[in-house]
Amino acid sequence: MAIEAHKVTKRFGEFVALDDVSVDVASGSLTALLGPSGSGKSTLLRVIAGLEVPDAGDVFISGREATALAPQKRGVGFVFQHYAPFTHMTVWENVAFGLKIRKRPKDAVRARVDELLELVQLAGLGKRYPSQLSGGQRQRMALARALAPEPEVLLLDEPFGALDARVRIELREWLRRLHDEMHVTTIFVTHDQEEALELADSVVVMNKGAVEQVAGPRQLYDEPVNEFVMSFVGPVNRLDDGWVRPHDIELRHEPNGSTREAQVLRVVRLGFETRIELERDDGERLHAQLTRDEADELELRDGDIVYVRTRKSRSF
Amino acid sequence: MTVRTLSLAYLAAILVAPVSLIFWRAFEHGWHPFWAAISNATAVHALKLTAEITLVAVPLNTVFGVLCAIAIVRHRVPGMGLVNALVDLPLALSPVVVGLALYLLYGRGGWFGGWLNAHGLRILFAYPGMLLASTFVSLPFVVREVVPVLREIGTEQEQAAATLGASASTTFRRITLPAIRWAVAYGVVLTTARCLGEFGAVAIVSGGIAGRTQTLTQYVQASYENFDPTGAYAASVLLAALAILTLLLMTVLRRGDRSA
Questions:
Q1: What are A79-89's pLDDT values in tens digits?
Q2: Which residue of A has its CA nearest to B259?
Q3: How far apart are CA B175 and CA B163, in angstroms?
Q4: Which residue from B174, B153, B135 is spatially nearest to B55, judged by alpha carbons?
Q5: Nearest 5°: phi and psi at A50?
Q6: How far apart are CA A214 and CA A225, in angstroms?
Q7: At CA A135, angle to CA A129 and CA A137, rounded to 5?
Q8: What is the dihedral angle through the alpha carbons of B235, B239, B240, B241, rounded to the nearest 10 degrees?
Q9: Average pLDDT over residues A216-228
Q10: Which of A29, A83, B94, B198 is 20 to 30 A from B35, comparing alpha carbons?
Q11: Closest by alpha carbon to A73, among B155, B167, B170, B159?
């Protein structure tokens, strides 16, 4: 294991940010810490980096006990949510910082920084100051800076949180490719389930300072262990005693024994996907997700009466 | 009348006219009397003494000002609120009161007066007392300039430096200090101006003995009272010139701050 957090507890005053949390991260993997705000995911990341000292528990990095080790000595690269650029240094100097303080030879520093700027597609922008970069460029600079001293572990705190939607998706794909080339053990924190499912090999779902489930993206979506994971990882309907994903709801014009009557409240067209908002005869609200073709075939309009069947429902 | 004319008229009447008058009176009879007035031994000594006080008080308040600012902003220690309020005391307190307080502490019959006297140490009516008074009154400026900047930059850059392997001293030298450098410079300029112009507190603790414990501001007062207006005007012009230089420096620093 590249990183082990063992029974870690961290309190801020009365608030328990981490409650006896244990997480193992495999060497070379890309792991997501997924959870709502206040779930403790960022705190766990900061405990691993040494930026927070846990009240109880241990942290091991590459098999070494690191709990009492200062952040300087952990060999981790950390990318902050707002990138924490050194504002008085150029992009080049930012990336070179970790190498210069290690007193690496000048030629080696220059070669490494140039290589990294190339890698993060900032070659030619080395002389700029961080304030002259776009959000996405600043993020990539922060990444290059963290990677420069060749850390054993790369930690990213909400790496895409401050970017607009399009840049976010581009950077996501780019980060995945980068990880596949470099194989640095990487943990990133996110509250966006789509981001976690798309990027990570392994997802740690956290809630209220505890780990709810650790699984691969597919298993997490198909076999959530409890209601929280089910409802946090993807959209759901709460129906009768079970939970149903909107794409597991079937709509038809004629009843057939196992269907319930419902009225269409609204048809929302989102490109490939069409979302149908419904109200069942017992007043229960739900929504179904159809492909555009399926929706077109049904010719649904607001106010129509349809018959609803659930294909797959989970109860916990 | 517009707001602009009104405010300009106010500035002209309150600030510009008196200061211009000083310059006019100093150079009324040309350069020669001016030069004679400021090159006599007493004036030169006063200028030297003022410089000696300023050159020690300013570095002291710069180093401790930066440390105080870091303590106020970065260390959540109980009582820091009180420290923060205390720093402003010299701005609120009349310098005369400061002088009197030092007198009560170090003077004959003061708390430390007897002990100091017994050991042959002189604080009052000597350089140490004047330095103490000047340091007291000019203490807040570096702290007040640096605190908001430290608040604004936050701790993330320092944490980033730590994760990159920088020790605490490297982080301070290469991250914190460059980030606050304009604020420190600005604070130094204001501290210097305050030290050069200090009168009230120093007047009480120095005794104002010409050629020995007389600063430039005291020289102005003494010259005036001794029916030597030329000497008073000349020294005033020197002080005013230093003040104008300070203002220019501040303007330059403000520019640097904005371009950073």
A1: 999 999 999 99
A2: A88
A3: 13
A4: B135
A5: 90, 10
A6: 10
A7: 60
A8: 100
A9: 94
A10: B198
A11: B167
Chain A residues close to B167, C-beta within 8 Å: 72
Q: What is the dihedral of CA A118, A121, A122, A124, to 10 degrees?
A: 70
| pLDDT digits 0-9 by tens, B50-101 | 999 999 999 999 999 999 999 999 887 788 888 888 999 999 999 999 999 9
Query: Hey, which residues does A76 pair with through a beta bridge?
Result: A153
What token pair was written down for B250? 């501040």
Partner-chain contact A84 B159, CB within 8 Å: yes
Residues 33-62 of A with CB under 8 A from B: 49-51
Token pair recorded at residue B147: 């605190």
d(CA B252, nearest CA chain A) in Å: 18
Largest Cα separation within chain A, whole Å, is 78
CB contact under 8 A, B156 and A82: yes
Residue A33 C-alpha, separation from nearest chain B C-alpha, in angstroms: 20
Contacts of A82 in chain B (CB under 8 A): 156
Residues in A closer than 8 angstroms to B166, CB to CB, are 72, 97-98, 101
Q: In whole angstroms, what is the distance from residue B185 CA to residue A192 CA?
A: 45
Task: Please judge whether B179 and A88 are an interchain contact, meaning their C-beta atoms are less than 8 angstroms apart.
Answer: yes
- Residue linked to tokens 């070179």: A96
What CA–CA distance (Å, rounded) separates B105 from B112? 6
Which of A97, A104, A145 best tests the B interface by mutation, with the highest count of B CBs <10 A? Answer: A97
List all residues 6 or more positions away from A275 whose beta carbon is below 8 Å from its beta carbon.
Answer: A246, A267, A268, A287, A288, A289, A290
Please count the residues of chain B: 260
Residue B257, chain A, CB below 8 Å: the answer is no
Provide mean pLDDT across the span B152-178.
94
Specify the pTM. Answer: 0.83
Q: Is B76 on the interface with A (CB under 8 A)?
A: no
